[in-house]
Model the fold of this input.
Amino acid sequence: MEYYTDAAVAYKKCLQIRIVHPLAMSNLGVALDRRGDHALAQKFHRNAVWLAPDNAYNRTNYALSLLTSGNYADGFREFEWRWNRGAANGNRGFVPQWQGEICPDCTLLITPEGGFGDIIQFARFLPAVALRMGRLITVVPKNLLSLMRLSFPGLEFLARGEAVPVHDFQCPILSLPLALGTTLDSIPGAEGYLCADTAKVSFWAEKIRAHAGTSPREAAVSPKVGLVWAGAPRHETREIAYVNRRRSVDLATFAPLARMNPGVVFYSLQIGDRASQAGDPPFPIRLIDYTAEIVDFSDTAALMSNLDLIITVDTSAAHLAAALGHPVWMLSRHAQCWRWLTGRTDSPWYSSLRIYRQKVPSDWSDPVQQIATDLAPFVGCKRNRDNAHSSDQVTI
Done:
């Protein structure tokens, strides 16, 4: 918080020296947004846009401020300026962008954009889009392909890199809310819209039970919590790599969860560079790690479906678990992503998501401590439900 205040003071001094300075106005708006003062921030963003209407960086800063404050109508419209920054990774091509038209005789190609979490979050719009088009084709990364095909069986998906058929319109997946006129009150699928493969769910259930060496009932009573402590670094994009450093933690940061809740069994869901920390000694209990057997997101979804709770930093695992309708507690950095809004611990995007935000930038101690405290009653409620269910069973 202190350096956001220092930044705001510095940009104010700059504007005192040179009152007409669009970049300083936009950056002052960003600093104020980081402090949660969106109404004031947007005054500076609007001035910056008025002075330099073609500056895509200033327009995108304004968009993120609007989105963070929940103004989706204006925010998603301004967000289209991201394409002029050279930072987005969609593929607009030469085909006209779909603007929400009803075209029963046309083919629409949805192109991937952002990270895995972005694609999972915005896939909820695909059924509504399909109702407006004759044919809908959605391109996704290969390791999302089986999950999407299973979850949306009536829709057509291709893996990124495959040849795409001729189409009349295209639309980046993050532009779908604009095309559909989405507001905070009209976000679909908050209760969940993805499905786990039943055969894979059964596979993981048996593996977990066999590993525990217990009966199915005994294995069910032991609370099982999945952990994800780091996002993908994505070093090729400096801005995203910077965000990843701020959103990620080391596994040792989660130590209070185990120390305060010794009856919980923890499972690693961590993929990537920091996955090896699952075997590091600082964690006070053994972390069960099956991630070497995970091939794609459908495997992760099935494993998650056998766990009682997912605790994760702000990465694709949070979107996956919540899109499955599964309980997920997410640690969020102080200057959190626009999609989580400001001052909320819940989300209009996901009913099963609970947000634990840093009170002080770069300090995870408070949210981790709060999760550790909240975990005890969660575990108690689960055991009570399981015991009550067990008592209802009659052996003949």
User: Anything to note?
Assistant: The mean pLDDT is 89.
